[in-house]
Amino acid sequence: MTTQATTSPAPRRVRPRRRPSLGIIVGIAVLAALALAPLTGSRHSLGIWTVALIFAGVSSGWAIAGGLSGLIPLGHAAFFGIGGYASAVVFAKYDLSPWLGIVVGMVIAAALAWLMTVLAVRFKVRGPYFALYTLAWAEMLRILASNLDYLGKTNGVLVPYKVDAGPADLQFSDPRGFYLVAVGYAALAMIVFLLVKRSPLGWRLSAIRGDEPTAAASGVDVARSLTRTMALSAAMTAIGGGLYAQYIQYIDPELAFNVSVSIDIAVRAILGGAVLVLGPLLGSVAMTSVTELTQKYMDALPSASLLVLGLAIIALAHWFPTGIGGLGVRLKRIWSRRSDRV
Amino acid sequence: MDWRLVLQSVIGGLFNGSLYGVAAVGLALVFGVAKIVNLAHGAFILLGMYLVYVLHDWTSLDPFLLAFAAILGGLAVGWLVQRGLLARLMATGQDGPLLVTLGLWIAIEAVCAMVFGSNPKTVESSLSDATFSIGPANFYWSRLVVLALAVAFTVGLHWLLQHTDLGRGIRAVSQDTTAAQLMGLSVGGLLAATMALGAAAAFFAGALSATLVPITPGAATNLLLMSFVAAVLGGLGNIKGAFVGGVLIGVVEGVGSLFLPGTMKVFIVFLVFIGFLLFRPEGLRRRA
């Protein structure tokens, strides 16, 4: 990744658009303002947006693999759960900082993802098979976690309150503290996504996504690119799992590894646009908003948000496959074309 | 080891496996012909369960009789889904249909939760309490009926695919869509028929399991996962293989429960699954 500046005419082709730097600065300023807005809101809404941002980060982690590489991983609950359990166990059982636990989780998740992908690439488990393959790994971890005494079986692991806890323990007397951590994590995940997308690895992934045999024939090391991507994606996802477990102070096999967690992670990214930096954030915010709105106005029907979500995904597949973010890009393109003419 | 326990587990596993098998048959058919990984299959199974529950509530006929009505329901739903939601996306690759079936899964589960709530519903068969014994082991008659019906459905589907014009058409599409089209077959219609038959299998599996498990909006997830495993074991796309795969998983689970505590038997199933995906993606036997 160090030889970024040398040569290669390919990237121009892959990403012809160049954003004006003013636009980026304004965009970041607007995002930052929006990110700080909930700080003034109620405790309840702060909690909602904390979780939404953690999942935005997790989905960005997913999108590194699911968006950029063209793989369809459907088992990211595995990495999310590993992060959650690692941070909870390190804190609850060994009385060490959950930050350390998150790092442990990242390492384990990355190692597992590396192993999974090495095997999958070696034995050509691709496409929908890869989706089922990753899902099966997550299921195995779920069953393992619900049967291991060390991990508290189906009861899971409780994260204890600590007297005079500080940021080092990821416990805050003011809930705004954890919210800022979530903001930081989401931002970090998006930056990592962007760095990967614009790095030589990102160009290789783009080539693989477009046409794998041609990419391989042109000298792209497919196996290495994919294993690295999955490992990085898993590590980024594990951070979110760790933060989530610390936030709700609790983790159990279903919260960590259930199929629905894997799907939730993937859907947020796909909904927002999995190849765009802002996609997972948009998707996560949209999903959380829908959930909250339906809970507010359709109290009697708690599943209404899932119905809306399911219908949204079907609509997405038909009319805007690049997600909400893709719609934005399309609008922007129309707008910039018009301003070019003026 | 206790001989009775072994018999109980293995034959019990065989009975469970027949259910996995008949669910997997639908999945394998749809994948083999339409090349769609149908994530909505579990939702179809769920609809089958609730359909039997509603019909049973209404008519108080025996749920095993109502399973045949569920087949009709499945045919209708499958046909509508293919015609209405999937047909337009068939040419765009696998991602579109995968997303649609994912959306359907989530939406149908949500609708079931909205309509029926999360309290478990049960359906009693008139056979529910009757048992029979093989050697020292005791089994419910209803499990044997499930096995028989599952086998009958699979054999019937296989016969339909092998010996009718519809079946020949479906097989032609599965082998070469373009050639089938050039021969004057209505590919769209045959794909709709395929999805209808696949959904019918799911509805039937759901209907059969309605008497065995409490029906909740999440009740079909396990059956969905197991039918994926079974379909891969059988070689995705292979009907008979999928059924055999399902039975095999049931037996593996049964044997696993002899040695492993709690739910670890399912762990073995997924281990076998990953092994097959890696080393034998073509399934148990190589297809000619």
From TrEMBL, chain A:
It is a multi-pass membrane protein. Its main location: membrane. GO terms for cellular component: plasma membrane. The chain crosses the membrane at residues 21-40, 46-64, 71-92, 98-121, 177-196, 265-286, 306-329. Keywords: Cell membrane, Membrane, Transmembrane, Transmembrane helix. GO terms for molecular function: branched-chain amino acid transmembrane transporter activity. It is found in: Cell membrane. This is Branched-chain amino acid transport system permease protein. It comes from Nocardioides soli.
